Amino acid sequence: MPNGPFQLIVRRDGAVETHAFHQDVVSIGRGRECDLVLPDRLVSRLHCRVERLDGGTFVLADVGAQNPARLRGKPVARAEIRPGDTFALGGCELTLALPVLPAESAEETKHGDLPEKGREVAAFLRIARALNESRDLTRLLTQIVDEAIALCGAERGFLLLGKPGEHTVEVARNFAQEEIGSPEFKLSRGLADRVLRSGLPELTTNAQQDDRFRDLQSVADLRLRSVLCIPIHVAGAVAGAIYVDNRLLQQVFQEREKELLLSLADHAGTAIQTARFVAQLQQQQTELHAALARVDELNAALKGQLHERTTELQAIRDDLRAQAPGARGKYGYPQITGDSRAMRAVFALLDKYVDAADPVLITGASGTGKELVARALHHNGRRAGRPFVSENCAALPEALLESELFGHMKGAFTGATANKKGLFEVADGGVLFLDEVGDLPLELQKKLLRVLQEGEVRPLGGRDTIKVDVRLIAATNRDLVQMVRDGEFREDLYYRLAVLPVHLPPLRDRREDVPALVRRFLAELPKEQGRVRIAPEALERLVAYPWPGNVRELQNELRRAAVVCDGVILAAHLSPHVREGRAEAGASPTADATLPAERGTTLPDMVRDLEVREIQRAFARAQGNKSRAAELLGLSRFALQRKLDKYALDGEGRPTGKPPAPDADG
Known about the structure:
By secondary structure, the protein is α+β, with helices and mostly antiparallel strands. Helix 13 crosses helix 15 (550-564).
């Protein structure tokens, strides 16, 4: 046996075992008859052999296993291996260790009957693996202390960190791998301070008789005999110490143990330095994240302040522009928000209408502010000190509306227990505003016309007329001209109401007024909501949205957003369809979708437009053939002709420009 024993280091499921062999052929497998037994179901009963040849070379030989051994990731039948090579069998990894000489001492420790060199190699392999895989400093240092106790035959082990006189005991363990309570009173702090101060190891085989420790009272008090204390260096400076002792036996520690502990101290220093680097990087990362968050906060604050200043400047510019001579007309009309070209045209008309006595007809889609215009005419006109009376013609049934407008006498109908003045009489000398006048029944249209022509009303059930002096302002979102064509509105009443017409543009045609409207509505929010601002991106979405419900829809949107936000309306606080810049389509009747009147049209108008469009498409498809067009529309030729007469279309579906047939009913 020219080269002495060799070792096979086995790693399986995180455990490491070292086996020494003196023979030249070592059988490996799961069977009990093998020299090296591996209890792994993926290993055959006799799997392979390690053979030592003359000259000290080694060979790994397969013996016909179903799962051949793998060397460098490849299966082998027979291959030379060198000390340090690792091969795999099933779930096990085996490393061939350098040949070692027989240990000088055959002392047995709790590691069993493994040679001392083998135990040392296994211990350092475990520590090296832990250093590579774990970032838990306490766990690493604990493992180092446990290995130091085992390798040195110590009774106890301590690991200290810090400066002389200020050190702390990070790990304190005994040979049974148990924690030691109150460790600061269980070791010689004076001895530890000497090592921390000098940076040199201290070794004594019998501290009770060592003159170097005569002045250390703790040595006597603790009855220490064998003591070994090694400094831990980190980045060239002493950062701590490994301290092991044995209070029962002397001469436990020799130069061998000192060298082992010096190596373990190097590992401890590496672990401490790595942990400090990791902690430093984590701290820097935390500080960086905090700094970035602070920068974001400052940017947001600056952006908010910039927006506020911009908004304030815009408001000042709007005020100055509004106060400029002739900018918003003679009266300024502070009740109405808007400085667009379309609204300036409205203000120019109002200037001319204010002092007149003739009726005013205000048209425009629902939500455009028709009542605001009516009130502005009253407020700035000659009747400002007299009553302003308002009524919605679509809100009451015909019988009740007649009583509201013209009044009634006691006993005129069931429930009329007293005389009641009508709104014309109440508004005498002032202004009567009739909203939704297009919904006025035909019979009441006739009575309204008589009041306008004669300047007097007759209450229901009364015989005498009452003279009234009222300026009438009417409003509607319907197309009264088309209603006249369809026989739904009296032509003579229309011309009587539309002496002074004014049309209010939809909000989509004056988007430049949206920011001013937003500022006004936010300023009018209830005080308990506090001050509410709007972010620039949210304002951009509001300007881009078409607002089929006009100013009223914008006001309701802001009220809702002000409730759900936390002082600043962001784009996320807006309704989805507003945020995405599209009017809602395909909504159910119960959804928050705009109705025809809110889009500035009516259902009959929509039906008329649809029918005219489809008739024209049918004539185009039929190349002017009326019978074929009627067939495509699913109508009889006679029914199609009635449609053409109703909509004043010629025999090919083109507008004739003539009035529709008065008796066409479609």
